Amino acid sequence: MDVAIVVPTDVRSRAGGIATFIRSFICHAPEDFAITVVGVTDQDEAAGIRGRISVCEREIDYLPVARISNTNERTSVPVAARFALGLVRHGKAVRAAVRGSVLQLHRPGSDLPGGLSGAAGRVRVLHTFSQQLTAPTGGSRWRRLPRAFGALEKWSLRRADVLIAVNETAAHEYRRRYPALAERIHFVPNWVELNRFRPSVSENVAKPVGAMLGIDGNAPLITVVGRLAQEKRPALALEAFAVVASRRPTARLLFIGDGPLRPDLVRRVGELGLDTRVHFSGVVDHDAVAKFLSAADVTVIPSAHETGPTTCLESLAAGVPVVATPVGQIPEWITNGRNGYVVKPIAEDIARAVLQVLDGDATRLRAEAVTSAEPYDARRVLALVYDLHRQADVRSRTRT
């Protein structure tokens, strides 16, 4: 079966939940799945020319339609708009690449330019609530055009043969809002690559990681993984760490990721006098994230909203307890005192929970964390995702 993934990212290099979804989908896809990705490129290659690349040692077709050096950087023209323009500009090549394929779409309206006619079914993956993208406090530019986004989403959802929501509440909400589509909407939880994110088998892993950061490898390490953007509330994690740091002089905080708030965070670190205790890794690949997590003592997820998030499962799988706000699937995954804590988005509450983890039984907490992640093994969860793609193919052929 042919599957064409249409997404405004470069799956070879970009970190983030959507890129993780796509890479795992490719890595574990059945042998009879022939995969094409229509995306963007941050490399020195021409847009509009279809080629072959390797993802997880699997060969796939790749058609970049726009060159974007950093999709994490906010520019005057949004990445989604530049991607849409690229789909139109290279419409002939795009239609040839996806003809006869089941489309996998991750953004509302990705199939709008040119209609992408000739597809053999559409699978739409719902990573966020529409309310999250249009909320006044959110970081998305769609917050300025909520009605336009609503119309675009409605058009996109109705054209889908299968809708996959990675958040159970979102699945229920979309079924309520679009009852005619209810039978097409499926909840599939996020997953984790247990072969990559696992407790370190080496007792010395903290030392090389500490050397990379220029810190004592035995110092308590707190990680925050994700884009440094408003909806992730990294500033809240920093304020919580300031409280922790006042009681744990050797503790260190590591932000893994990058984003528009980094300059503000660096400035605030200086104001708090924590320059030697807070570190920024920038964007790193999954192997580096796994290495950092294997050396961590606790992960903090202070987000205003999430769907999964995958970061939570990755931390648990690595044996790292999680302190998080009650967003997305987190309340389903975290049991207070067992594998972490779910707390209110208040710096003092987050700090108190982090200290409880640091003062707790580390061996038990790590073991409980690993156990709680095991049901979400990528191979197990993705089996359902592949089956839903086959259903989309059958539904499309039946409809026509």
Descriptive overview:
By secondary structure, this protein is an alpha/beta fold. The protein folds into two domains: 2-191 and 378-399, Glycogen Phosphorylase B (Rossmann fold), CATH 3.40.50.2000; 206-376, Glycogen Phosphorylase B (Rossmann fold, 3-Layer(aba) Sandwich). The two termini are 18 Å apart. The chain has helices spanning 17-28, 79-89, 91-98, 130-134, 146-158, 168-177, 206-213, 234-247, 262-272, 286-294, 310-317, 330-333, 347-359, 362-373, 378-399; strands at residues 2-6, 34-41, 51-55, 58-67, 102-105, 122-126, 162-165, 185-187, 221-225, 252-256, 278-282, 298-301, 322-324, 340-342. The model has no long low-confidence stretch (mean pLDDT 87). The strands form two sheets. The chain has an eight-stranded mixed beta sheet, with helices on both faces.
SSE topology sketch:
Blueprint: E1 2-6, H1 17-28, E2 34-41, E3 51-55, E4 58-67, H2 79-89, H3 91-98, E5 102-105, E6 122-126, H4 130-134, H5 146-158, E7 162-165, H6 168-177, E8 185-187, H7 206-213, E9 221-225, H8 234-247, E10 252-256, H9 262-272, E11 278-282, H10 286-294, E12 298-301, H11 310-317, E13 322-324, H12 330-333, E14 340-342, H13 347-359, H14 362-373, H15 378-399
Parallel strand pairs: 1-2, 1-5, 2-4, 5-6, 6-7, 7-8, 9-10, 9-12, 10-11, 12-13, 13-14
Antiparallel strand pairs: 3-4
- In the predicted model, the low-confidence regions spanning at least 5 consecutive residues are none
The CATH architecture of the largest domain can be given as 3-Layer(aba) Sandwich
Rounded radius of gyration (Å) = 21 Å
When the domains are counted, the total is 2
| Principal-axis shape | globular
The biggest sheet, with number of strands, parallel, antiparallel or mixed sense and barrel status, is: 8 strands, mixed
What are the secondary-structure elements, in order, as H or E?
Answer: EHEEEHHEEHHEHEHEHEHEHEHEHEHHH
Task: Report strand order across the widest sheet.
Answer: 3-4-2-1-5-6-7-8
The CATH class name of the largest domain reads Alpha Beta
Into which percentage range does the β-strand content fall? Answer: 15-25%
CATH fold naming of the largest domain: Rossmann fold
